[in-house]
Amino acid sequence: MKKLVFSLLFILFVFTQFSFQDKPKFDLKASITRGKEIYTAQCITCHQEQGEGIEDVYPPLAKSDYLMADKTRSIQQVLHGASGEITVNGKTYNGDMPAFDLTDQEVSDLLNYVRNSWGNKGAAVTPNEVASARK
Ligand code: HEC
Q1: How far apart are CA 130 and CA 70, in angstroms?
Q2: Ligand 1 cavity residues, CB under 6 Å
Q3: What single DSSP character describes residue 85?
Q4: Is the pLDDT of residue 132 over 70?
């Protein structure tokens, strides 16, 4: 009887080890590195290399209160673009940002880069969060 209990416990132990390996932790660092490439290709012309934007035309992403205030809104901003008046760090902007045709992972990588560069520090955006914000 004792032997049976021990072997059952052992099997349980082996199972939990394997199931933990199946779900690796989200690798934020790798995501940020990939995101930088997408940013450089798609966003830099307007929001600039240091995320500083262009005065009175393109709002900054560096230390942007608007960006950091709402994760879901920032996902939708990239997917659908945006227009109309917004206030970023106390300054108003009223321009047009185009929509971007990117995968869930690309949007996640991009926002992880933007939310963790130039003085920004934000929690990871996962591809799953992008998928649900898309709906
Ligand atoms: C053609 C220029 C242009 C490009 C390219 C562009 N944006 Fe924008 N972006 C804008 C404008 C203009 C606004 C302000 C829109 C408004 O007035 O409602 C904006 C606003 C934003 C905002 C919200 C305001 C803020 O400063 O926090 C975020 C976040 C953002 N853009 C991210 C991105 C990302 C990420 C990319 C690359 C995928 C990108 N943008 C590409 C022009 C652009």
Answers
A1: 13
A2: 42-43, 45-47, 58-61, 64, 66-67, 74, 77-78, 82-84, 86, 88, 93-98, 100, 110, 114
A3: E
A4: yes
Q: Coil, strand or helix: which one is 130?
A: helix
User: Are 53 and 60 spatial neighbours (Cβ–Cβ below 8 Å)?
Assistant: yes
pLDDT of residue 2: 79
Question: Of all helices (H) and strands (E), which one includes residue 83?
Answer: strand 82-88
Residue of the CA atom closest to atom 29 of ligand 1: 67
Report d(CA 27, CA 11) in Å as an integer. Answer: 29
pLDDT digit string (tens) for 74-83?
999 999 999 9
Atom of ligand 1 nearest to the CA of 67: 27
| Domain locations along the chain | 26-134
CA distances from residue 133 to 69, 71, 76, 125 in whole angstroms, order as listed: 15, 9, 7, 11
Closest ligand 1 atom to the C-alpha of 64?
Answer: 27
For 26-134, CATH gives 1.10.760.10
Q: Which of 118, 117, 131, 134 is nearest to 28 (CA)?
A: 117
